[in-house]
Amino acid sequence: MGEIVAVVSVHPSKVGGGAPIFIAEDEKELQSSAFLLEKILDASAHDLKNGTMILVNHR
Q1: What does residue 36 show for φ and ψ, rounded to 5 degrees?
Q2: pLDDT, tens digit, for every residue of 18-35?
Q3: Distance CA 56, CA 36 (A)
């Protein structure tokens, strides 16, 4: 079972919850922010294909 450790989205009104949320200006910033956070948090980035990516710790 994984734990969502962060959310990156271009749609601020469509995300919420207990994990930190990062808002990106566009798809390019979404991708670069998510992949940088993936390395920093030692997590896996998963693209939900709707302008949102989640970072999951699978430990």
Answers
A1: -70, -45
A2: 999 999 999 999 999 999
A3: 13
Query: Exposed, middle or buried by CB within 10 Å (0-12, 13-18, 19+), for 30?
Result: buried
DSSP string, 2-57: -EEEEEEES-GGG--SSS-EEE-SSHHHHHHHHHHHHHHHT-EEEE-SSSEEEEEE
Q: Which domain holds residue 38?
A: 3-57
Give me the sign of the Cα torsion angle 44, 50, 52, 56: negative
Report the domain count for the chain.
Answer: 1
- pTM assigned to the model: 0.93
Name the token pair of 4. 């969502």
Nearest to 18 by CA among 8, 2, 34, 5: 5
